[in-house]
Specification:
238 residues; alpha/beta; TIM Barrel; 36% helix
């Protein structure tokens, strides 16, 4: 049998779910693979999801440790709830909450200080891609968003034009960007996100320098998520 390398599958449930949904989801969901699964539900359901024996992450955290910041959640609080990871800088946070690269870097440091592993998102718009400046834009975004120092983190490349649109970057598009990011971050796990589903996940995860996927809508369907998790690739294809 060939040696295999595990992939990282991050399930971003966004603002979806309920107690009843979670009970129903885990009544059929199982993961019998060696791939690493991280489920990121809305804050109120972190404990409930974790109780089913899966690794959980949050979808955001504050850059502050405590204080008069109504509605914010400190990274240390997430750690107390059993979180191991936190998504930072998702395109929806950048778009709807005007989060800057500098703020995301602050949040990444707060997460690391609290014992969490940040999953930092970067990506370009369709206009930037068509201008031909997509590589430079994403690399600069990554440089300005990642924490300084030696803290461990992941980076997720999510072309904005492919999130929730049904569009997916081509294999060559993904390979081009992930190769550039690998030169910048030789040892950092690199994920791809952008309309990942059970039909395209195998091709995406077989692409060089793709260490896993960030899955949105498809991760809300137990059968689809299990199909994505059921992936094996020869060690030499990393």
């Amino acid at each position: 049998m060939e040696d295999l390398v595990s992939k990282i599958i991050v399930a971003n449930w966004k603002m979806n779910g309920s107690g009843e949904f979670i009970h129903s989801f885990f009544s059929t969901f199982t993961n019998s693979t060696d791939n690493r699964l991280i489920i990121c539900p809305p804050y109120p359901y972190l404990s409930q999801v974790k109780s089913h024996g899966v690794t959980v992450g949050a979808q955001d955290c504050s850059q502050h440790t405590s204080g008069a910041f109504t509605g914010d959640i400190a990274a240390s609080m997430l750690h107390d709830m059993g979180c191991s990871y936190v998504i930072l800088g998702h395109s929806e946070r950048r778009q709807y909450h005007a989060e800057s690269n500098a703020l995301i870097r602050e949040k990444a440091h707060a997460a690391l200080d609290a014992g969490l592993t940040p999953i930092i998102c970067v990506g370009e718009s369709r206009a930037i891609r068509e201008s031909g400046n997509h590589i430079e834009t994403v690399l600069n975004q990554a440089k300005e968003s990642i924490p300084s120092g030696t803290g461990k983190f992941m980076l997720a490349y999510e072309p904005i034009w492919a999130i929730g649109t049904g569009l997916t970057a081509s294999e060559s598009d993904i390979a081009e960007m992930h190769t550039a990011l690998r030169h910048l971050l030789p040892t950092t796990p690199l994920l791809y996100g952008g309309s990942v589903n059970k039909e395209n996940a195998k091709t995406i995860m077989s692409t060089p320098d793709v260490d896993g996927v960030l899955v949105g809508g498809a991760s809300l369907k137990p059968d689809d998520l299990m199909a994505i998790l059921d992936f094996k690739t020869p060690l030499g294809n990393r």
